[in-house]
Write a structure and sequence with these properties.
Blueprint: H1 3-32, H2 38-48, H3 57-69, H4 71-80, H5 82-101, H6 109-136, E1 140-141, E2 144-145, H7 155-179, H8 182-213, H9 215-223, H10 225-245, H11 253-273, E3 276-278, E4 282-283, H12 291-318
Antiparallel strand pairs: 1-2, 3-4
Helix pairs in contact: 1-2, 1-3, 1-6, 1-7, 1-11, 1-12, 3-4, 3-12, 5-6, 6-7, 7-8, 7-11, 8-9, 8-10, 9-10, 10-11
Length: about 325
């Protein structure tokens, strides 16, 4: 049995669920900055209150899986991505603090809403920088990072950062389109009408730029033209359908289509990077830890993953349907 491959699949699975589930509440947080009506901002927050903190569990699981299964890769990627990782974690912490404090004040609620929005935007941008850095590639000598911590701020990484943020905004607007009604749904429709074309355009530009930034991306297109071509086609057809679904029933369709867009993006990234765990430098087998570490980590994953999935499914089931105008506690 190929334990390093199973461990890598678990890490990829956890990261994919994190992006899909936490992406929409980061998008809702970013949209808070564009909503001037305090009651509407309250309803936006109500829509993500039951699930937003649990979504970040998958990020922790992915980090633990990477450390346990591929310590060499962890030791290379962590210093390469120090700045965006630290800024992302601080931003996620700011989101948590502002989320709690906004309920304890009246006059300063706008300030805490702005803090939540800024934290969401910065966290999304940092995640986009990390994606860009992985595609761009990191400098490695032996089994150590040999580049600069500011390599992650090169133009291509900045482009991917904005693309990821725009995608999260589309997910967030799709969630609001599904979970809210009346005036706030109109806000979501406007956000989708503006955000969806921007996201699709940035995704196209990013894909083209990646070919010039990283030769291995071009090699992947040569090696897997059918798979990558199908993913790209599904992405852009889905984007068109999403744009045409705004304001129509079922209300959940834009959100589901947004998830498909991100699934295509994650799938394409996996095809381009595989079999590397440190992109284009170190394969997952070369970076794998001892067999016992993989056995221990995968045994824990087999126990913990169904529990987290069951909890998440239960939470989404309990809080299904439209968000009450005065919150779930009303």
């Amino acid at each position: 049995m190929d334990l390093p491959l199973l461990s890598a699949l678990f890490v990829a699975f956890a990261m994919t669920l994190y992006v899909l589930l936490d992406g929409f509440d980061l998008g809702v947080g970013a949209l808070l900055l564009f909503q001037s009506d305090e009651k509407q901002r309250d309803r936006m927050v109500y829509s993500i209150t039951p699930t937003w903190d649990g979504n970040e569990t998958w990020l922790i699981m992915a980090g633990v899986g990477l450390l346990a299964g591929f310590p060499i890769a962890y030791g290379i990627l962590l210093p390469a991505l120090y700045l965006p990782l630290i800024m992302m974690l601080l931003s996620l912490g700011l989101r948590g603090v502002s989320f709690e404090f906004r309920y304890q004040v009246d006059r300063a609620r706008r300030i805490w809403d702005a803090a939540f929005g800024v934290g969401s935007i910065v966290a999304a941008l940092m995640q986009g920088l990390i994606v860009g850095a992985l595609i761009q590639g990191v400098a490695v000598t032996g089994d150590h990072f040999s580049g600069s911590v500011i390599d992650v701020f090169r133009p291509f990484c900045l482009l991917t950062a904005v693309a990821v943020l725009s995608g999260y905004v589309v997910l967030g607007a799709g969630w609001l389109h599904f979970k809210t009604s009346a005036k706030l749904r109109s806000f979501a429709e406007t956000s989708l009408s503006v955000g969806a074309p921007i996201f699709a355009g940035l995704a196209l530009v990013t894909c083209v730029a990646a070919i010039f930034v990283q030769p291995r991306v071009q090699a992947a297109w040569v090696a897997y033209p059918v798979v990558l071509g199908m993913m790209a086609s599904v992405f852009f057809v889905t984007a068109v359908i999403l744009f045409r679904s705004v304001g129509r029933e079922p209300a959940m369709r834009p959100f589901l289509l947004g998830l498909i867009l991100f699934a295509c993006g994650v799938g394409g990234l996996a095809v381009v990077i595989f079999p590397y765990i440190v992109p284009f430098q170190l394969s997952l087998w070369d970076a794998a830890s001892a067999t016992l570490s993989h056995v221990f980590m995968l045994a824990g994953a087999v126990v913990v993953t169904p529990i987290v999935l069951a909890y998440s499914a239960f939470a989404y089931h309990v809080f299904r349907g439209k968000t009450p105008e005065e919150g779930w506690e009303s």
